[in-house]
Amino acid sequence: MLSLLSTMRTLVVRQQAGEALRCLHLTAVAEAARKGTREKARKKKVKVEVKKVGFIPHNQRDKKINVKRADKHVDDSWKQVPKDDVYVGRYYRWPVYTVAEAIQCHRETHHPSMYNVPNAPLNVEIELNMQGEKATRFVDNFQRMAMIPHKFHHGEERKIIVFTKGNEEIAEARGAGASLVGGVELIKDITGGELLLSDYQFIIAHPNILAELVALRGLMKRKFPNPKSETLGTNLAEMIVKFSNGIAYSAAKDEYQQNFGLITASVGTLDMDAQHLEENVRFLLQDVNTMRPKRDGRFITRVLLKSAPSSEQLKIDPFVYISELYDKSAAKSSRDAKKEVAPAEPQAAAAAAAAN
């Protein structure tokens, strides 16, 4: 009886209103039960940690998310042609200008009385249909250098190094404006670390030095001269002029619309002769058209002329300078002509085989 009283502790509370007694049991059994309920309550109050998720590419995201994006290929052929000069632009077709008319319009907006930038660059935006020969295939992104007849200040540093043997070839390359010209001794300087290839943006070579140039293939990597990139050939002067004065451009597919590609390049400045600018535009479009896939339909879909700081964009007709549709007969004749042309030297044939 005494042990039971020792194990149980009671507290008698006498209430003022009455004589009722209330016993509060504070035994070890009651404490253990209360401790378990407290632990359960604490577990319920645990904060849920939110895991941070990094950037997920569009093709790996949840398929339930369906974002509607507008087609970037603009086709306004179904719209009516405006009958006068006052109309709401979104309800009618875009007006098509000649290159000369577009240049004149930009010159008026850049007059000293308006933007006051008479020598602003004239930019060309070329929209492409990158659909390949098959419905599930698309043209790869590409970078090219377009030869133009009338040079202008492009604002880029273009240092060209030329590898060749022979006094005549070396003199030809130096006369064309190459930054550095040399032969076997130049290759030794590069392998010895006395000269860095990274200081030069373009590397051009003659087929007569191709056997010795193979030693630098690891250093040059993608810049190694080859006929496809037109950095290997016998006409050094033409290649040097092309890479020093030509238009460098690149075509890139849209991230969400694989059949849409865009090219932005500068063809000159507004203070140049309008005919010279038009010829530069024509050479650029013809160079871009060489990359068209072997399928029906248009490759170049729309061409716009822009000139900053003006936001005005004027549409021109590119099919005045190139064919609108794919011509199979013309493509076949051009391939046959390339097959008939034999390499000038045995080294050129070896270079073509190495490039392939």
Automatic annotation (TrEMBL):
It comes from the Eukaryota. GO terms for biological process: translation. Residues 334-356 are annotated as: Disordered. Belongs to the universal ribosomal protein uL1 family. The gene is Dgri\GH18673. Gene3D superfamilies: 3.30.190.20, 3.40.50.790. Its main location: mitochondrion. It comes from Drosophila grimshawi (Hawaiian fruit fly). This is Large ribosomal subunit protein uL1m. The keyword ATP-binding does not apply. It is found in: Mitochondrion. Transmembrane segments: none annotated. SUPFAM superfamilies: Ribosomal protein L1.
